[in-house]
Design a protein that fits this description.
Two copies of one chain form a homodimer. Chain A is of the alpha+beta class and 232 residues long. Chain A contains eight helices and ten strands. In chain A, the strands form three sheets. Chain A has a four-stranded antiparallel β-sheet with strand order 1-2-8-4. Chain A has a four-stranded antiparallel β-sheet with strand order 3-7-5-6. In chain A, strands 9-10 form a two-stranded antiparallel ribbon. Chain A binds a DNA duplex (30 and 30 nucleotides) through α7.
Chain lengths: 232, 232
DNA sequence: CGCCTGATTGATAAGTATCAAGGTCGGTGG
DNA sequence: CCACCGACCTTGATACTTATCAATCAGGCG
């Protein structure tokens, strides 16, 4: 059992519903509707490092993160990984991909992760019956799209230093000032190399923006305000 | 009247509906529903070079391109433009932005352009009443999002040459082998400079992938197949 | 204690942007 | 009709940013 990397678990109905409530796309649903939704949903655990799905897999399940962190990324032709987002509690794993035939990104558990999942068919039917959810999904992807547009502008127009600062800023406003990330993971997120990331981080450390205690897969941001309107 | 850069025109109801029909998000609507939609829509002309809306403007209108080409882009802090897409007949101009408070990209007429537009409020009500449209929109943005993800992977992981080839490939499969673009416009699309674009194009010309007749704001792709599985 | 992963630093090379200078085409106005 | 002007294209030389390669260091875990 110990080696099993993915397994279904039991969770009280109330916990499932509470988990779903974390997800803003369901904000407009009544208690009744949430209860219905809860019955369609199965909790699943993926242990650290497991792939939840891979790019190109047929899109079979809708997922909401109940607990843990999941990395969402693509791998380039030359084998580099680019991380697009790190999903935490209450976030969906590409809710929009279910509207296409296959997933267009890969997802991997960064820690042991509990997810709530639902078959694609049921999900599509559910969304079709709840326009409010559909509209929230649109708003959500619009945000994502904008973020990617900004990332492209950043990569093309700005220097690595600024890009890394933006990434840190995004991550810090989502997860707080203390980030559990290796330099490698941050590099993937910013679309650069580990070495360059390290060099920039030391620079930022000198300027006092990030803390010196940053070691072994941890980065601590001491001055978020400075970080956010940083301009080299 | 000649100097007026934006003006409302009249169009027969049947033409409006025909224009809307070009847009795949309305595929599932009945003739009746299309007729209703048609009455909510106003045709507007923007002359070449005019901005239809700018990044940050409150999102006031939903637009479908009836005729002409529209550039969708963002401008970086350092003043560079990055083009995300070139919208032609039947395409929406960021249908998803209407679900946020403001536009997150700018749009500019690349030629004289006729658009069909509809107030934001009516649009949101309409989508709320037609789940099929909402779901098509989700699928559409999912595609867009995927394309941006791919673009990021390209920029980070591949060389300019390959990136330009991808851009040409995308444009050619959309607009045919003969593209009316200046090198500058292509450069913005690929996220590089005019000079680099030119150098790559001459290289491709030597290899016979694009035609020599490519001059004065025109690029002719002679061998799309080779282009599509090009690998330097 | 030794191994393995992640962090760090330095030297070097490659890819592109930038800057500079000309060339070509098309249109406009005298 | 011709000459000029401006927009676009082209080419070359140079500089800068960042990736790559190589080597070392540090800490946790079996």
């Amino acid at each position: 059992l110990k080696d099993l990397r993915t397994y279904v678990i039991n969770l009280r109905e109330s916990s499932k519903i509470e988990g779903l409530r974390q997800c803003p796309i369901f904000d407009d649903l009544s208690a009744e509707e949430m209860k219905d939704l809860g019955t369609c949903v199965t909790p699943v655990i993926f242990s650290k490092g497991t792939f939840i799905f891979k790019e190109g897999d047929p899109s079979a399940f809708f997922y909401v993160v109940y607990d843990g962190l999941v990395q969402v990324f693509k791998t380039s032709g030359s084998g580099k990984n680019v991380t697009f987002t790190i999903a935490g509690r209450g976030e969906t794993l590409m809710a929009s991909a279910l509207f296409l035939d296959s997933y267009f990104v890969s997802t991997q558990a960064m820690s042991d992760v509990t997810l709530l999942r639902m078959g694609r068919k049921e999900w599509l039917v559910f969304v079709g019956r709840h326009p409010s959810v559909a509209m929230k999904i649109i708003a959500l992807i619009a945000h994502r799209l904008n973020r990617e547009y900004e990332r492209v502008v950043d990569i093309v127009g700005e220097e690595v230093e600024l890009r890394l600062v933006h990434c840190l800023s995004i991550l810090a406003s989502k997860f707080g000032p203390s980030l559990s990330l290796t330099r490698q993971e941050l590099a993937n997120f910013a679309g650069t190399t580990t070495e360059t990331t390290i060099r920039v981080l030391s620079k930022l450390k000198k300027k006092g923006v990030i803390s010196c205690s940053a070691s072994r897969g941890e980065i601590v941001i001491s001055d978020l305000a400075t970080l956010q309107n940083y301009s080299m």
